[in-house]
Design brief:
With 136 residues, this protein is an alpha/beta fold. The protein is built from five helices and five strands, in the order βαβαβαβαβα. A five-stranded parallel sheet has the order 2-1-3-4-5, with helices on both faces. The longest helix has 14 residues.
Length: 136
């Protein structure tokens, strides 16, 4: 699995990376502009991201604008809706406007910070990007 972590806060970035590193290759972007550029480059190289963990409150380009731009880049590269990267918004914002806006813009899941590993992995399994071992 190829994962892009988009987060401007160093500690939050490291936490997500620690949660995800066992499941695949993790890449980092510190703002929305870098995220859009990373998605563009990955698609051009034929190695798209499977998962994007995207913060909302970031400098230069916030998560809402970045998600819209990422979905546009995917369309421009001929990526069909069902084949797009799965996007989990990871943010401190829990108000209905931000939650609904994120889903309208094309995210598949929304997790309020602090991100708990169990919640993140459960969402990833629901999205089909990982398969957790069944408890015996």
């Amino acid at each position: 699995m190829r994962c892009l972590i988009v987060e401007d806060d160093f500690a939050a970035r490291k936490l997500l990376q620690a949660h995800l590193c066992d499941f695949g290759e993790c890449f980092i972007a510190v703002n929305g502009r870098e995220a859009v550029d990373a998605v563009q480059e990955a698609l051009a190289e034929g190695e798209p991201y499977d998962l994007i963990c995207l913060d909302i409150m970031m400098p230069q380009m916030d998560g809402h604008d970045a998600l819209e731009a990422i979905r546009k880049v995917e369309r421009e590269h001929g990526v069909k809706k069902g084949d797009c990267a799965k996007v989990i918004m990871t943010t401190a914002l829990n108000d209905p406007k931000n939650v609904m806006g994120a889903f309208r813009e094309g995210c598949e899941a929304y997790i309020v910070k602090p991100v708990q590993k169990e919640k993140l992995l459960a969402e990833m399994e629901k999205l089909g990007v990982i398969q957790l071992e069944a408890a015996e």
